[in-house]
Amino acid sequence: MFYHLFEYLEETFNLPGAGVFQYISFRAAAAVITSLIISLLFGKQLIKILVKKQVGETIRDLGLKGQSEKKGTPTMGGLIILGAILIPTLLFAKLDNIYVILMIFTTIWLGLIGFLDDYIKVFKKSKKGLSGKFKIYGQIVLGLVIGTTMYFNDSIVIREKVSEEEMVQVADDGEITKITEPSEKFSHESVKSFKTTIPFFKNNEADYSKILSFLGEGYEKWAFIIFIIIVILIITGVSNGANLTDGVDGLATGTSAIIGATLGILAWVSGNIVFSDYLNIMYLPNTGELTIFISAFVGACIGFLWYNSYPAQVFMGDTGSLAIGGIIAVFAILIRKEFLIPVLCGIFLVESLSVIMQVGYFKYTKKKFGEGRRIFKMSPLHHHYQVKGYPEPKIVLRFMIVGIILAVFTIITLKLR
Predict the structure, then answer these.
(1) How many domains does the chain have?
(2) What are phi and psi of 391, to 5 degrees?
(3) Which of 215, 254, 212, 240 is nearest to 329 (CA)?
(4) Does 122 reside within a domain?
(5) Are the beta carbons of 69 and 311 closer than 8 angstroms?
(6) What CA–CA distances, in Å, run from 72 to 53, 58, 241, 250, 373?
(7) CA atoms within 13 Å, Cβ hemisphere of 59
């Protein structure tokens, strides 16, 4: 909103200082500050309202230390996160940018699904909340929207590097000699492509359409089917992974802030032709604008962590956890870095795997031996350490340290090939 307003003021009235809104760095800084202010100031007021409305969390007795004290802690605090993301984005981002539009849609869509789940749990007194299949349906719809938009929208393009012969003049004994040197530069034309980034490989780009090359001539026209399926799987996996991680105070919020900051760096360099050329990565025109959105996301997570750190004054509920997981997944897909998710979102991945392994092994042993056995003392993994006697703040802090290590390693992959 402010971008368009000050652009008009500069063009029409030549207003001094209005041009500062052209800089992504300025608007990103403004977004993160605004997001922090909203989450810190208005978050406190929302918590009071939630307490007054008796929007308390129903705690399932798992026999964990300190669990009983959490009973009645207000939930649906994800509303703080959603507001602190959307308001700065609407204020400082270019609202005609397709990437920003998709991120706003993702935030609202998954936020509504999560809110509906929390509403049923709190006000309808249903412990199960929204049926799991409806959550999956919602994530599938989001995947279809993101996948089809990326395929059909002409604004979502990439710039590929092309080989050129560079003529260099060298003085040798007073004579000028022309030497031809091959080089690679970004093409001046943008193209539609299903290419994405593959970490650790020298030529670190792969095309989804190649999966269907066995179909023969014209296989490219069916590539969007594979792409949409992969998009749906990534969104579902990461969104549910974040939901599972939200089990102890500050864990999901803290790790999401770290992931968001890393994605912001990746979006910044991918949307800048100079940095993309230097790092030899895919250049994605107009994705730099996503830096404003992810700055607001990081500010929202940090601001919410102020109230969500141990002992939590508020829980985000599915309103927040489903949304932040989906935001991370869609953001990574838009900047063509989805194959870095297993590394960057390693905490989410391990939490999800611990549940899958626990449930799978229990069913297998019950069928084979007549008695179910467990790999972990309890799943998700953070509960395993709780049962072993680790204090909750120590678990969260150590998981966040691992998250920082994974984030650093993710950035290093830009040059580690």
Answers:
(1) 1
(2) -65, 145
(3) 240
(4) yes
(5) yes
(6) 11, 7, 25, 17, 33
(7) 18
Give the N- to C-terminal CA distance of the chain in Å, as an integer. 41
Q: Can you tell me the distance from the alpha carbon of 156 to that of 416, in angstroms, rounded to the nearest whole number?
A: 27
pLDDT, tens only, 18-34: 778 888 999 999 999 99
What pLDDT, on a 0 to 100 scale, did the predictor assign at position 3?
75
Q: What is the pLDDT of residues 347-401, one digit of tens each?
A: 999 999 999 999 999 999 999 999 999 999 999 999 999 999 999 999 999 999 9
Residue 182's pLDDT is 53
Quickly state the pLDDT bin for 15 (edges 50, 70, 90).
confident
Range of the domain at 332: 24-156+221-337
Distance CA 381, CA 248 (A): 11
pLDDT score, position 228? 92
User: In this structure, is residue 412 part of a structural domain?
Assistant: no
Residue 105 domain-assigned (yes or no): yes
Task: Answer for the pair 270, 294: CB distance below 8 angstroms, yes or no.
Answer: no
Name the residue with tokens 């509403």. 119
Look-up of token digits 């091959």: 182
Distance CA 97, CA 2 (A): 14
CA atoms within 13 A on the CB side of 243: 22
Which residue has tokens 């789940």? 117
For residues 156 and 148, give the distance between their C-alpha atoms in angstroms, rounded to a whole number.
11
In a domain, 174, yes or no: no
The per-residue pLDDT for 263 is 97
